[in-house]
Amino acid sequence: MLERGLEEKYYVLNLGPQHPSTHGVLRVELQMEGEFIVKADPDIGYGHRGHEHMAENRTYLQFLPNLGRVDYLHALAYNQCYCMAVEKLLELKVPERAEFIRVITCELNRIASHLLWIGAYLLDLGAFTPFLYCFDDRENILDLLDRVTGSRLTYCYYRFGGVPRDVDDDFLAGCKAFARRLRSRYRDYENLVNKNVIFLERTKGIGIITPEQCVQYGLTGPMVRGSGIPYDIRKCEPYSVYPLFDFEIPVGSTGDVYDRYMVRYREMEQSLRIIEQAVDRIPAGPIMAEKVPKRIKPAPGEVYVAVEAARGEFGIFLVSQGETAPYRLKLRVPSFGNLSILPEIAVDTLVADLVAILGSIDVVVPEIDR
Amino acid sequence: MATTVQSVSIFGMIAGLIGVMALVAVNALFLIWMERKVSAHMQLRPGPMEVGWHGAIQTIADALKLLGKELITPREVDRPVYLAAPIVIFLPVLVSFLVIPFSQNLIIRDMNVGVLLILSFAALTVLAILMAGWASNNKYAVFGAIRSVAQNVAYEIPLLITLMSVILMVGSFRLTDIVAAQSRVWFILVQPVAFILYIICATAETNRAPFDLPEAESELVAGFHTEYSGMRFALFFLAEYTNMFIVAALATIFFLGGWRGPFLPGVIWFLIKVYAIIFLIMWFRWTFPRVRFDQLITLSWKILIPLSLANLIITAFVLKLV
Hints:
The structure holds two protein chains of two kinds.
Chain A: H1 2-9, E1 11-15, E2 27-33, E3 36-43, H2 51-56, H3 60-67, H4 75-90, H5 96-124, H6 129-149, H7 169-194, H8 197-203, H9 211-217, H10 222-226, H11 233-236, H12 257-281, E4 301-309, E5 312-320, E6 328-332, H13 334-339, H14 342-345, H15 351-361, H16 365-369
Helix pairs in contact in A: 3-4, 4-5, 5-6, 5-12, 5-15, 6-7, 7-12, 12-15
Chain B: H1 10-42, H2 58-68, H3 79-96, H4 114-135, H5 139-170, H6 175-180, H7 187-190, H8 192-205, H9 217-220, H10 230-255, H11 266-285, H12 293-321
Helix pairs in contact in B: 1-10, 3-4, 3-10, 4-5, 5-8, 5-12, 8-10, 8-12, 10-11
């Protein structure tokens, strides 16, 4: 009887796999006591597609479109990481103009990802209207990227050795116009969202992650920067032409949900700065490296390359045995590591807080399931 | 009038019933269209445009679609209670229309306890929500129901106390007397604090954002009506919009001088004021994020109730001095 009594003290609530706030097929099994969470257990794997295995059965080029489908929201960073890994194996030198184009498009994509996150996050908190304003701004980015990459979401734009298509002056002017436009929207976002009393009440002081926990759980991206650690691969292990540009890394102080929101919000401005500098200084020249082999068949070796994606460190570990297909390709996805802290910070919160915390982690579920 | 038993003709009753039903239906159709248009224009989009002029009869098309939907009854529900809940939520809403004065003469029954009648029947809505949530046998629905009960109990108290300060000034529960007392100046100018408190409580009472906890879609999917489909769902929807009309009508009667206004007939003025209040409530919904549940309860018990009590006491003092 006693045991039965203990069982009945808690009950299980399934948040997902079909729930408006899990943003994909993620299931969180919650042990509840009233509306308080005793234990939160994320259950992943509903959308497993076997990207890593697919890589072993395809040529290097055939695997490239898969990268845009791992994290569909910041696809270009994933493209870039894979291209950099293969280029490193092939010892290709990417022309400077191509690097500039990569940086501009990748940063545009980062802003689009953050805009979507901000909109969807406020939707989780019950504010519907900012969602459509964010999507309105994001639409401009999609139009710009559509112009150069030919697609609106699952981009597959970079190639080994450069980019296949050059950008025109209209695109560069469009980037500048977009920067002006987004800045003119800041006032609305600041006044209606960032200073909103209800928003502050909902986000301040919940889901606190200490810097020690960040290190223990291997968090990256805005999660770790929200806790005050200025870890950004673009600065710490610079790649591409990022060292040429002047930008800052926004960090939070307390590591709560609000800090993570503000980190992402302020990162958009830094990305705009990078884009503007890159547009001003983009050199003329080729966009494709010379001597790119027709058949990609790198010499045996292994390489690890990481980039700063919108959600954190995205890394690829690639082993070649001199075949036309990789021997092994391992994707290090940021959402997986970031989600792992959820059971720790979700304890003793309300369901409404769990939604706010889960949203602030910014998971892309296909990326976790791979 | 109410001291003597009124002779009620059968025709009068039927006419009143038909009138109320027509008003409820047309009002809900209009409000849903209005909400979609208001939200759309706040969100940089046109809203419904296809069916009728600027989508004017879009809601009729939606209602027809809902009528054609299968009524799904999940296997594990408590059938009698589950089936009764949509009807129970709708009845008290209808009764409230008995005493609302649309103009000097356009009132079904001018009772001397009009305010009490509306508020006591409004409290019944909680019962229906609790029935729906409990009978659905769904954890999210139970959550929604529990929240709804706690919320409505917490917010009915300041709502009543706020209205009491106006009733103190008038000295009558009769709604026509309250309107008549505003012949010189609207009570919104005399009792601005009470008006603000009333609007906050009314928003919470009708479960509208930012206090729409019982049906918070990002947490509870659809709250207490998760398991309802087709016309049963539509009845909950209808009741919500009719409730909005009633609280806005009360605000009009208590603070905005009811049907009083120059040139236009009284009923037109009444409706203009009611829909202005409803627009305000819609504006809240499309501007604010949702509060958390404990914050909602804290707001009521620690801020709204003391404030409304203070307002009542000050009103009483001033009345005594004058």
